[in-house]
Specification:
- Chains A, B: Residues 183-257 form the HTH crp-type domain.
- Chains A, B: This is Crp/Fnr family transcriptional regulator.
- Chains A, B: GO terms for molecular function: DNA binding.
- Chains A, B: Keywords: DNA-binding, Transcription, Transcription regulation.
- The structure is a homodimer of 297-residue chains.
- Chain A has 297 residues and is α+β, with helices and mostly antiparallel strands.
- The first copy, chain A, folds into two domains: 13-172, Jelly Rolls (Sandwich), CATH 2.60.120; 180-274, Winged helix-like DNA-binding domain superfamily/Winged helix DNA-binding domain (Arc Repressor Mutant, subunit A).
- Chain A is 32% helix and 17% strand.
- Chain A contains eight helices and eleven strands.
- Chain A has helices spanning 46-49, 55-64, 145-154, 156-182, 185-199, 217-224, 228-240, 256-263; strands spanning 34-35, 69-71, 76-78, 86-92, 95-100, 106-112, 131-134, 138-144, 209-212, 244-247, 250-253.
- In chain A, the strands form three sheets. A four-stranded antiparallel beta sheet of chain A has the order 1-2-8-4.
- In chain A, strand 10 and strand 11 form a beta hairpin.
- Chain A is globular.
- The structure holds a DNA duplex (30 and 30 nucleotides).
Chain lengths: 297, 297
DNA sequence: CGCCAGATTGACACGGCTCAAGCGGTGTGG
DNA sequence: CCACACCGCTTGAGCCGTGTCAATCTGGCG
């Protein structure tokens, strides 16, 4: 939420935002990865549900994948510049792909919701260009890179599905860029919320949707290129107009058509027609605590 | 270069910028596609030069491709929402991928330089989410979608190369998003110029590079999310500091290390190590006229 | 019950946008 | 061969959307 051009003078005050790498986000002490029972860990995944896979290919994928692991919030799943040897699927919880500016400015290049593949680039690129960090407690599944490559070589459907995932991510990123470059704060938020409501598979009824929405205002700011303060003010406007409401991590959009109009949102770019409909996870998910970081030890 | 939040009141004045679709860019009357002799049209292409292809696969690609065609400047190669049935390679000249905001704001999601693939998404997505338009006269080569799919199915190297192209485009887009969201005008321009100097394969010597650079200031603005006026002022600053100079479509960066520092540029994300080095095209290319559009009808 | 992350508020500053001319070069029609 | 027409580049004045800085408030958790 810091902009780069601003120098980071105040190393003094305690809870002031600080450059990312200096620990504005809490440093992680234990990754607390523990195994969880599972049978079809990939089932709710966008890759799994894409129309490009045959059932045989689905089976092959399922066998190649590790079992579920649960991860704390604020954990780096992928660190910028370090070797990455697995594709990570986020089965439950939210994460983000982020990059930082020399000045400490932080920016998200993706918000990852349940079912998303966190780091497709690890398939072909060994040093990731940006990190991936959980925003909530999450459960993930890994597909070792070598296995993924082998599968993609043997099964053209799997290769095609990977390419498709990359193309959709591209389309989303292009829309984000459009927002970042040419939309006002209000439009940015409207567009983002419309997008997320669809991506998490929330069921709209009577122009209204509700869905789990763990990000803090600061994290929203890092996604749309604003300041946490300004996100706050803009949210107040949207709230005052009766368009959005957030209560205990659940976001409600009360007038989706209006929001779409404001944000200039057209769902086509998400290409949801190439995926089997995904059921929305339970509205209040006990595994979703935006676990507050315990202070330094 | 219009920002969306601004209403477009002045339909009166003559040379004022106008919403994109209303013809700020000249409307195209004739596509003027004419054949040109060629032998290995794909040779200078990033796909062709990627390490993922075997020589057999290169041959297969070469055979599948149409012969070169030359295209005028300001021509839509791909129109948003319309069916696209070919992958287009831009062999010579520059183009851009663009999208527009309801308010008429225009934004580029990519600048395409010689050797780039214009619309990889056409491989799997039939209605493109954004348009592609030439910025200069250009020569292009097409690979029919069905052929591309068949090749990707038969040759895993080709499939892999496609995926790789998508991933690199993604990485570039992510950096653009970082710029858009968190960098100042000066930083944005510095970063963009550093990126382009590498992508066009310009040879740096003694901290200095020169390369063909056809975009107008307005087009630069559409790439970095600024106004043409502000790009102009920022360019003046960079020029005054002796960092960049443009003369007759040739850009010279006189102090690349300094520019990289300003823009926070780290070339890793371009993953040039996965492509055979590409020779820089001749510095002044007679085919590069930023052909001015003749006026109406 | 105290702590702390996150949400909220207010005062103020500034980067970048808007509006409005003006300038120089270059194809083009007369 | 000249004179427009027109594109792209510049410049100046003024404004406003967002950022900055600094408190304060609030609810959940240990």
């Amino acid at each position: 939420m810091l902009r780069s051009q601003q120098t980071c003078r105040s190393a003094s005050v305690l809870y002031r935002p600080e450059p990312f790498h200096l620990g504005k986000w809490p440093t992680v002490r234990s990754c607390a990865i523990k195994r969880v029972s599972d049978d079809e860990p990939l089932k709710c995944t966008r890759l799994w549900n894409s129309y490009y896979l045959s059932s045989e290919e689905r089976r092959a994928l399922q066998q190649a994948v590790t079992s579920r692991r649960s991860v704390n919030a604020h954990v780096d799943l992928v660190s910028e510049g370090e070797l990455a040897d697995s594709l990570l699927f986020i089965v439950e919880g939210w994460a983000c792909r982020y990059a930082t500016t020399i000045g400490g400015g932080r920016h998200f290049s993706a918000l990852l919701v349940p079912g998303d593949l966190c780091n497709l680039e690890a398939l072909l690129i060994d040093r990731p260009d940006c990190g991936v960090r959980t925003m909530t407690a999450a459960t993930i599944v890994a597909l070792p890179r070598e296995l993924a490559l082998a599968l993609a070589t043997q099964h053209s459907g799997i290769a095609r599905a990977f390419t498709w995932l990359a193309l959709v991510e591209n389309a989303i990123l292009a829309k984000w860029a459009l927002s970042l470059g040419r939309r006002s704060a209000k439009e940015k938020l409207a567009h983002l919320f419309c997008e997320l409501s669809l991506r998490v598979g929330a069921q709209e009824r009577e122009y209204e949707v509700s869905f789990n929405f763990p990000p803090t205002q600061e994290q929203i700011a890092d996604a749309v290129g604003l300041t946490a303060v300004h996100v706050n003010r803009t949210m107040q406007v949207l709230r005052a107009e009766g368009l959005v409401a957030i209560a205990s991590r659940i976001m409600t959009l009360s007038d989706v058509p209006r929001l779409r109009q404001i944000g200039g949102f057209d769902p086509g770019y998400l290409h949801l027609d190439r995926v089997r409909a995904n059921t929305q996870p339970p509205l209040v998910n006990p595994n979703y605590p935006r676990s507050r970081s315990r202070r330094g030890s």
